[in-house]
Structure formats: structure tokens, C-alpha cells
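Blinded run. Sample ID left blank on purpose so nobody reads anything into the name before looking at the predicted structure. Input follows.
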Amino acid sequence: MIQRRDLMLAAVSAGTGTLTGIKPVKADSSSQLVNETNRKTEGFALALGGGAAKAFAHIPILEAMDELGVQPVEIAGTSMGAILGGFYASGMSGKEVREITVDLFTRKTQLFQKLFLNDGRTWTSLFNVVRPAIIDPIVLFETVFPAGLASNFSDLQFPLKIIATDFYTQSQVVLSEGELLPAIAASSALPMLLTPVEINGRVLIDGGFVNPTPFDVLQTDGYHTVAIDVTGSEFDQGKGLPSGLETWIGSFSITLHSLVAAKLACSKPDVLIEPPIGRFKTMDFFKIEDLLQAAEPAKEDFKRGLSALLNAQ
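Blinded prediction complete.
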């Protein structure tokens, strides 16, 4: 039986799961630096993919940008990538994003106190079995997100594109204006766990079903593109049978990884980084410090790849 705590953790992840292993792609690889001879306008656009707990590997990338003193012309994010991208575009530094997420997932008592809504709202406003899904993502994110999140897209420091899926038309929706929190909630609305979000008359669910690593929606007119894919490039051979929740979320991951592979077969970003976090499971939120440490090599891959692009301009 799936425990309520497991459901809450899956919801907080707000990202589609992955059971695949991940291997770093060296930034100086010729397969990454495509069309390098075609000089582009100074700047780059960044895609942050979805991937449940594994998407914490985006945090060293955010820190790397701060260390290099650069900022993307825009970010496109799916699911957990939309969450972290929203934090960063709101003006939080990579270090602050690390502190916020590590604090949330290493102080378990504080996390569960937040989840039990001590702000006057009732538990049923968050957790209700009669809704289309068990948990309201907007209430959840209002509860656990930092106060520094921008209210609207127009308040962000640079453009942000958030990917969601239109449930009824089975098509991609790119959200880039209006209220920010509902857009992030829509991009993260994993079926059965998080309630679909209605925006402008469209019923939206997790964006990973249409575009797990959305480098193809980035502004490419004169700019380089950089993508951080956490859906996996290597499959880690685990021991024993996965739990019911891992099987459930992991089954989505198979589709997500296939979608990314299909997109890469048609076109590639100028730099593709796949952090080496394959030994971690999708629900390893409380292992965030170990996961971040494992993802550190991706920071250097990103720095080398981005520096090569910008220096070639």
C-alpha cells in the first residue's frame, strides 16, 4: 500500500520520474558543439528538464552560471525544471536555490509541519480523494515554495517558458505569461497524484508527457542553446523489485526517455549535459545532499561547454 508520506514526497517532487542512469556528456565533444562555425549573437538559452528528485542536478548548473557571471536570455523548463527555473528567474541565486531545497528536504520535521498546513487552511484543501487527483498542486506549492517566487511572468528577471500538456487535445502548451504559480503547478501535475490545472479554459497536466527536456522551444534566433537532460542515458541495474510507487512513476520515465531520444535524433542543442546521477532513485529526495555531490562533475562540463560557445562568438 502506498503511504501518504510517499504520495506527498512524489507530489513535492512535482516532476516526472525516471529510473534510468545518467552519464555526463563532455562539453568539448564534437557531438555537442554543432554548427560552431556559425557565429551567433552573444548569449545562450537554457532548457531544464523534468526528472523528480534527479532534477536537483540542475542546481549545480544554476550555480555555475553565477560563478561564470552569465545569465541566459531565457529558460525553458518542464516539471521540476520549471520549478527550479522559476526560482532562478525570480532572482534567487544558484546558492540560494541550493539552500532552499536542501533545507526543505533535510529538515523532515519542518517539511511535514508545512505539509500539514498550519496557516489556517484545512487538510482537505490539499489532500482530497474525491478530486480528479489526490493533491492540489497549487495549495501544495503555496505551502512549500519560498516567499521569493515571482507572482507573474512579467515580474521575472528574464523570460521563462513553462511546458505543460493539454489533456484533451493531447498537445504541448507553452506558458509564458500570466500568473507563475499555476503555470508551474500545471507543468508538474503528475496524473493521479496532482490535480490537473485549468488555465485559459485548457485542462493541463505534467509537461513531461510531451516535452521532458524542452530545448526545442528555446529562442534560437541568433542564440546558442544549452540543455540539461535528467531523464537518463544509462540504465542502472537495481536490486530486487521496485516499490509500487517507483514502478508507477518509473513507467512514465520510459516514455520520457524515449521522447528525448527521438528529439535528439532529429536535432540537438549546442551543448547537452546529462549529469552522472544514475545510481539515485526517483524518490531519493532525502538524499539531496548526496545527489548534489554526485552531480558536481556536470557543473564543470557545463562551464567548459558554455565557455567554448561564448568564446567562439
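Unblinding after everyone has recorded impressions. The longest helix spans residues 244-266.
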